[in-house]
Specification:
The chain is an alpha+beta fold. Helices cover 53% and strands 22% of the residues. A hairpin with a 2-residue loop joins strand 1 and strand 2.
Length: 350
């Protein structure tokens, strides 16, 4: 478990630092005063000053922040901010500074995807097996066929086929376009329900293998990151609609457990296998952090972007003290949610 905790902290630092570094770099480039750059939350373990910015490491590994002068509205209300304060920057500079955090998460995820694809290759949507008596067999699908579209959505990876099949919880018919001998054909499959697995199946096993050359690495690296983003979006939708429960959500404790399980499975194959699996987890978390921060909720980057868009449209900002109160309420709600997730992790795994 000690090794898993260390690996978790490495993943945490990479994902959070990449996010906050996005805010930091754009702010510094545009002359915005960064008051404090910190990783973690809660009491400060250690800190140092460099220039006019304080750099800190906090006790609890549940986030981080890049704090700008005047961003909470309190100093603005008192008239105590300098020319380099966040509210004094042009609106689109502030928009770029806020947006840079999630953007850097996606860029980091893409770099991780490039590493994985260059070393491991990818699974293709080539059909490896058609199960006897299945709907797929009835409509004429064969091993060797390559699925190119499902319900109008372009398919690039074997994982795309699996994800669509797993999320088809109502057993809706799927319009499948496939390529055979250079010719595309389209069929409609009505998935059948498996009582034991409690889900619908098309009746195929898809997943060939492609060792990517350099251009393909960049191409499929993007498709891999896109796959994780789509998985995150659909998981959020399922959580909102009740198809997923609170037990499907994990915080830091749950993530340590995930890292520990993956480490135990991978370590028998050597250090490279462990490293690749940790990169895979970091890729998923980086995409998750980027997407979650773009949600238009108070205290998140997405909430701040909403206020900046309103300012750009109406030509003047929302009163800083009012925006500050909204984000403060959002932060309080976020802290409560973190505590609930932590409690759920502890009860679920221990």
């Amino acid at each position: 478990m000690a090794v898993s905790i260390i690996l978790f902290f490495i993943i945490f630092f990479v994902v959070v630092i990449s996010h906050e570094l996005g805010h930091f770099i754009i702010a510094k480039k545009n002359g915005i005063h960064v008051v404090e750059f910190f990783i973690g939350m809660g009491p400060t373990l250690f800190s140092f000053m460099k220039g006019d910015t304080k750099y800190s490491l906090k006790l609890f590994p549940i986030g981080g922040a890049c704090m700008f002068e005047g961003e909470d509205g309190l100093e603005t209300e008192k008239g105590e901010i300098s020319e380099r304060a966040f509210p004094n920057a042009p609106v689109w500079v502030r928009f770029a500074t806020v947006f840079a955090g999630p953007l850097f998460n996606f860029l980091t995820a893409y770099v991780m995807a490039l590493i994985l694809v260059s070393i491991c290759g990818i699974t293709t949507p080539e059909i490896q097996k058609v199960y006897e008596g299945s709907e797929a067999e009835r409509v004429g699908l064969q091993a060797g066929d390559v699925i190119t579209e499902i319900n109008g959505k372009r398919i690039h990876l074997g994982g795309d086929v699996t994800l669509i099949s797993q999320l088809n919880t109502k057993g809706e018919s799927l319009t499948v376009t496939y390529e055979r001998n250079g010719v595309e054909n389209t069929v409609v499959i009505k998935p059948t329900y498996d009582e034991e697995a409690q889900r619908y199946f098309m009746g195929i096993a898809a997943g060939g293998y492609l060792k990517c050359n350099l251009p393909q690495t960049f191409q499929y690296g993007f498709y891999t990151m896109k796959f994780y983003a789509e998985t995150t979006f659909k998981s959020l939708g399922m959580l909102v609609t009740g198809q997923l429960s609170k037990d499907d959500v994990s915080g830091p404790v749950g993530l340590v457990k995930v890292v520990d399980d993956v480490y135990d499975s991978a370590k028998q194959y050597g250090a490279l296998e462990v490293a690749l699996n940790m990169i895979n987890i970091a890729l998923l978390l980086s995409v998750n952090l980027g997407i979650m921060n773009l949600l238009p909720l108070p205290a998140l980057d997405g909430g701040r972007l909403v206020f900046l868009l309103i300012e750009a449209i109406r030509g003047k900002p929302i009163p800083p003290e009012k925006e500050g109160m909204v984000h403060l309420a959002g932060m309080a709600a976020l802290m409560v949610l973190m505590v609930l997730v932590l409690f759920n992790d502890i009860t679920k795994f221990f």
